[in-house]
């Protein structure tokens, strides 16, 4: 199984002990691989609606701060070697 380098791997016994902490981290990771006797057993991920709700809560959180600047974000998106900003 090819996994991204930052994919958390958790034993089922560890999931039982620390379910609350692991559950809170789910919206922030793509998935968590659960292992049983050291071998991959299942994939755990947050429902898309949970991730969408989290994105809605954070949208606009920079409004009114010094990071709320179109000029700043245009300079961040422009690489030194690029002539045009990166489209997101």
Would you write up a description of this structure?
- This protein has a domain at about 1-45: YefM-like domain (YefM-like fold), CATH 3.40.1620.
- Strand 2 (about 30-35) and strand 3 form a beta hairpin.
- The chain is α+β, with helices and mostly antiparallel strands and about 90 residues long.
- The longest helix has 11 residues, at about 50-60.
- The protein contains four helices and three strands; from the N terminus they run βααββαα.
- It has helices at about 10-15, 20-25, 50-60, 70-75, and strands at about 10, 30-35, 40-45.
- It has a three-stranded mixed β-sheet with strand order 1-2-3.
Tell me the helix content. Answer: 25-40%
The CATH superfamily of the domain at 1-47 appears as YefM-like domain
Specify the structural class.
Answer: alpha+beta
Tell me the fraction of residues in β-strands, as a range: 15-25%
Rough outline: elongated
Largest sheet: 3 strands, mixed
Order of helices and strands: EHHEEHH
What's the end-to-end separation, in Å? 30 Å
Write the CATH fold name of the domain at 1-47: YefM-like fold
In which order are the strands of the major sheet placed?
Answer: 1-2-3
Radius of gyration from the CA trace? 19 Å
CATH architecture designation of the domain at 1-47: 3-Layer(aba) Sandwich
- Tally of individual helices: 4
Specify the CATH class of the domain at 1-47: Alpha Beta
Count all strands and give the number: 3
Average pLDDT figure:
82
**Poorly predicted parts:** none
């Amino acid at each position: 199984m090819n996994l991204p380098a930052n994919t958390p791997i958790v034993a089922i016994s560890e999931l039982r002990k620390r379910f609350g902490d692991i559950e809170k981290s789910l919206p922030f990771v793509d998935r968590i691989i659960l292992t049983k006797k050291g071998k991959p057993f299942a994939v755990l991920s947050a429902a898309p609606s949970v991730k969408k709700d989290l994105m809605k809560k954070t949208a606009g959180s920079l409004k009114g701060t010094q990071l709320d600047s179109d000029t700043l974000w245009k300079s961040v998106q422009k690489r030194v070697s690029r002539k045009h900003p990166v489209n997101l």
